[in-house]
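User: My instructor asked us to take a sequence, write out its structure as tokens, and then describe one feature of it. I'm not sure where to start. Here is the sequence I was given:
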Amino acid sequence: MKKVFAMLFVMLLLQGCVSAPRAPFVPSTGGIVTGVKAPLTINFDKQKLIKTYGEASTIHVAYYILSFAIGDASLKKALKDGLLENAAYVDYEWASVFGMFGKLTIKAYGLEK
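Assistant: Let's start with the prediction itself. The structure tokens for your sequence are:
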């Protein structure tokens, strides 16, 4: 009976990892240093390159079970930062060191208001 309770307790603790919502993308990660730039928008055939952009970032620190992230990497924040009305296309940049320290930046390109 103790084994059943122990197993239920472990399952209860781990359920948050399984049911956590996922972002629409998962950045690549390296063992020591990671630096990735990639598009979130895939329809480039009819898009003109636009130099006006806004960005929004989050940083995270993870050390064993202690983990936290600070910031707002939403599209809404990136549009507000660049004084943009809407996004023509969106890119992201992901940088990480040892998987413990990282920064995610979303860049929204578009026309000014």
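For the description part of your assignment, you could build on this observation: The chain has two helices and five strands. Try explaining in your own words what that tells you about the chain.
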